[in-house]
Design goal:
305 residues, alpha/beta, Alpha-Beta Plaits, six-stranded mixed β-sheet, binds adenosine-5'-diphosphate
Length: 305
Amino acid sequence: MIKIENLTKDYGNIKALLGVSLDIEKAETFAIVGPNGAGKTTLLNTIVGLVHPSGGKITVDNIEVSKNPKEIKKRIGYLPQRISFHENLSVLEIIEFYASLRGINNNNLENVLSAVGILEQRNKKVGALSGGMLQRLALAQAIISDPPILILDEPTISLDPEGRIAFKKLIREEKSKGKTILLSSHILSYIEELADRIAILVRGKVVALDTLGGLRTRLKMGSILEVVIENLSSQALSLVEDLGAKNATINGNRLRFFISPEDKSKVIKTLVENGFNVMDLWTEDSSLEEIFIKYTEGDSNSSNQ
Ligand code: ADP
């Protein structure tokens, strides 16, 4: 449905996208997750034709975005990260405006407002809405024309827990109608229940792409093991790394690393056999959120230069 081939985008010296290739299938809910500055908004904006890529190709429904942007726009409902509405208009007036802009009759407008949970506020002026309510209104304008594709940039960012529950329900309903949904988030947990597949974007590159289950297996760095060793030295660190430990660090007399659960006992045995006096140990399984942070840590403030 959406095919992205070797997409690049430079803003002067800043390389926002460095050769992104993705194939998003029809009726799939696909999430792009990454820290701030990873290139998520740039990627979504290139798909809807708001940003011109420096290189690569995007086709939506077999139509090339650069060649026929108008056709693409008809197929996509877009929730941008920032949207502003005229403050003196009411919720209903805003949504009527978007409906007329897209040539839609007004019969269904209250249903749309109800679906995003803002029907009760329909006569309220936009200037009096909370951030969460504004986001619901923005979502309403994205779904109003019942497009086959929804592209939602950080859709949960201003929502309170109640708003997030309503959002998840809405996405499930849209999904059950066979819609292709592409959404972005910098927080994995908000979208992990919704997405069929997740791409992790870091510094303009896709570093992982899989189903949630696949990511859990593939990205699983194993358990965290912390071993307190009386006569700890860097040789112990080399020994555990030789046995497959990842991210090993030494802090005082504590050696800490990630290791697959089945290798835990072998590591301890090897340390003891090599004369290390193991005094204590502590272990914990890593969660998906931790693994995501591991992948992306240190990148949120990167300059991408
Ligand atoms: P994300 O949505 O993941 O936070 P963005 O796509 O907004 O990432 O930004 C990716 C990189 O491109 C960042 O380094 C950002 O500062 C830069 N960038 C985004 N838009 C522009 C722009 N219009 N001009 C210059 N740099 C930009």
